[in-house]
Amino acid sequence: GAGVSQSPSNKVTEKGKDVELRCDPISGHTALYWYRQSLGQGLEFLIYFQGNSAPDKSGLPSDRFSAERTGGSVSTLTIQRTQQEDSAVYLCASSPIAGSYEQYFGPGTRLTVT
Amino acid sequence: GIQVEQSPPDLILQEGANSTLRCNFSDSVNNLQWFHQNPWGQLINLFYIPSGTKQNGRLSATTVATERYSLLYISSSQTTDSGVYFCAVVLTDKLIFGTGTRLQVFP
């Protein structure tokens, strides 16, 4: 079946603009996660959704970052007033939860803030 | 929080060689994942392994949860094995990733 998909694959934006990144999880997966991988850095957890609710927002780096999930499926990560340090690859993952917490990752969105 | 460390940080092999990558974690865990990040950045699931040993082709993994480590074995390495290998502790609400091992396999 189809894996996790993300769009756009690449995004170049000017400093100060807002961006939206989209994630389509594997059908039937109830949990959805966002991570960030900065150049030369490790993988950093951002936020987790169980269904449409986000019980853990502790990983969001600032109040410019927000995320929502609707219908227990698609999720959108929004970054307002982008800064150069926001440049990174943003990765989305989903997990079935029922019986397994194994996470499956999408191809990522490469964000460049100029 | 849980700390996850991997060694070695970098590994260079000639095609056909075998290797062992190590993942140490600072606290008891219920589950662990191994990933291969290919040169295009895609994270590919290798193993979901709470304890014991699993094998998939030329790759196998062993987790000894009581001693807080996991090992990934790559046998008869190929150039397509190049990339970064990550282990990650699996929690109910997130993965905590290790620092990664960058593997380069030359023909």
Principal-axes shape call of chain B: globular
Cα gyration radius of chain A (Å): 13 Å
Note the main sheet of chain A.
7 strands, mixed
Which stretches of chain B are low in confidence, meaning pLDDT under 50 for 5 or more residues running? none
What's the N-to-C terminus distance of chain A? 37 Å
Description:
The complex is a heterodimer of chains A (114) and B (107). With 114 residues, chain A is mainly β. Helices cover 0% and strands 50% of the residues of chain A. Chain A has no helices and eleven strands. The N and C termini of chain A lie far apart (37 Å). Chain B is mostly beta strands and 107 residues long. Chain B has strands spanning 4-7, 10-14, 19-25, 32-37, 43-48, 52-56, 59-64, 69-74, 83-90, 95-97, 101-106. In chain B, the strands form two sheets. In chain B, strands 2, 4, 5, 9, 10 and 11 form a six-stranded mixed sheet that branches. In chain B, strands 1-3-8-7-6 form a five-stranded antiparallel sheet, with no helix packed on it. The radius of gyration of chain B is 13 Å and the shape is globular. The A-B interface holds A 33, 35, 37, 42-43, 45, 48, 50, 55-56, 59, 89, 91, 93, 100-105, 107-108, 110 and B 31, 33, 35, 40-43, 45, 48, 86, 88, 90-100.
